[in-house]
Design brief:
4 strands; alpha+beta; Glutaredoxin; 2 domains; single chain; four-stranded mixed beta sheet
């Protein structure tokens, strides 16, 4: 089994389900607070895929309300915004034996390191995304 560094938003329902799947498969987790990590564009970029719109937490209250403006034609500016407001980062971020991933694509993770079961429900989309506020940081 492998060591997984798992950057999460504490209290996130889906992150809890994702960690449970990894632990059930016998993987060791080093859970870290995504919102308190000292992100820079250089430290964040290895986790992100090629599709810039996939970098963003669509449940972020400012994104949903239109208050947060992201210019997807300017990836460096978007990275800077994500570092300044980590709630913008789609989660989880995972470092699995040096391979950095964003999001929880269960099939891909199963192929990489193995899972004992695949989720029967969507554990990527925020279950609170239907609410006006979506997921907020504690204290907000």
């Amino acid at each position: 089994m492998v060591q997984v560094v798992f950057y999460e938003k504490p209290g996130c329902i889906n992150n809890r389900k994702q960690k449970k799947l990894l632990e059930e498969a016998g993987h060791s987790l080093d859970a870290r607070n995504l919102l308190k990590a000292d992100w820079t564009p250089q430290s964040l970029r290895p986790f992100l895929g090629d599709e810039i719109t996939g970098w963003i937490n669509k449940s972020h209250p400012g994104v949903k309300s239109g208050e947060v403006s992201l210019d997807y034609s300017q990836p460096e500016a978007v990275l800077a915004q994500m570092c300044a407001d980590p709630l913008l980062i789609r989660r989880p971020l995972m470092d699995i034996d040096g391979q950095c991933l964003q999001g929880f694509e269960a099939d891909r993770i199963d192929q990489m390191i193995g899972l004992t079961r695949l989720p029967q429900e969507d554990i990527e989309s925020c279950p609170k995304s239907h609410s006006r506020d979506g997921c907020r940081m504690e204290g907000q």
